[in-house]
Design brief:
Layout (H helix, E strand, L loop, with lengths): L1 E10 L2 E11 L4 E5 L6 H9 L6 E6 L2 E2 L5 H5 L2 E4 L11 H5 L12 H14 L16 H13 L5 E5 L7 H18 L2 E5 L3 H7 L2 E6 L2 E7 L9 H8 L11
Parallel strand pairs: 3-8, 3-9, 6-7, 7-8
Antiparallel strand pairs: 1-2, 1-4, 4-5, 9-10
Helix pairs in contact: 4-5, 5-6, 6-7
């Protein structure tokens, strides 16, 4: 579904991506791990066409991300942002239905609200949440609203950016279960960025480790612990000693 071949991206002297090769199968869940500042978010932005690589090619369903109709291309994606990124001035249902109230996916307001309430129910929130504002919700509830918004337009591909950041372990577990269930139900292709190894094991089919601008290891999550790769082994076990130098 998604293929990256030889992707390079530098910002001035900072060479963030140095030849990334990665394939994400249709209907599978890929989790990208790696230290802070290794280019994971830049990689997602390149796929979305928000950042243009200096070299290399990215295709989605066989088509170059820079070709064709941009609105139609972006309509295929859903996104759960790290900080929630909810609009404080809009009630919850309008946050969830944001894409359904404008642009090429626009629907009548009443219909959009019905879809929003349905998606809120899917993530475990009651209909009375719809009229509340984000500031009235807990962090876990805000994350659920963000997830409802990500799936509101029935996207083919969903990106999750640190989906459990800032949540307690129990709520993080709830969000992980919801992500896994929803992705499976929808048959969506998923890409997730996370440092949380519990999330990696809960939601991934395959794992890719990004370090020093390249994919150091990729494979099924079941093979992660026995990979024999020193970079991956150090990262997943949180060891101070190893080929990944700690920033002091």
């Amino acid at each position: 579904m998604i293929e990256l071949a030889g992707i390079h991206k530098a910002f001035g002297e900072n060479r963030v991506l140095r030849g990334v090769d990665l394939r994400v199968g249709r209907g599978t869940s890929m989790v990208i791990i790696g230290g802070s500042g290794t280019g994971k978010s830049v990689l997602l932005k390149c796929i979305l066409g928000l950042v243009e690589p200096d070299r290399g090619r990215i295709t989605v369903d066989g088509l170059d991300v820079h070709e064709g109709d941009r609105d139609a291309f972006l309509a295929r994606f859903g996104m759960l942002f790290q900080g929630g990124a909810l609009f404080d001035s809009l009630p919850v249902w309008q946050n969830v239905a944001f894409r359904l109230l404008r642009g090429s996916l626009k629907r009548p307001k009443a219909e959009a609200r019905e879809v929003a309430i349905e998606k809120l129910r899917r993530v475990g929130l009651s209909p009375d949440t719809a009229e509340k504002f984000p500031a009235e919700l807990s962090g876990g509830m805000q994350k659920r609203v963000g997830l409802a918004r990500a799936i509101a337009a029935e996207p083919e591909i969903i990106f999750f950016d640190e989906p459990t950041t800032g949540l307690d372990p129990i709520m993080a577990g709830v969000i992980n279960e919801l992500i896994r269930e929803i992705v499976t139900e929808m048959g969506a292709t998923a890409m997730t960025i996370t440092h949380d190894m519990t999330s990696v094991r809960a939601i991934s089919d395959n794992v890719a480790m990004l370090h020093d601008g390249v994919i150091k290891w990729t494979g099924p999550v079941a093979h992660m612990d026995s990979s024999g790769d020193p970079y991956l082994d150090q990262f997943i076990h949180g060891r101070a000693e190893g080929p990944i130098a700690a920033v002091r």
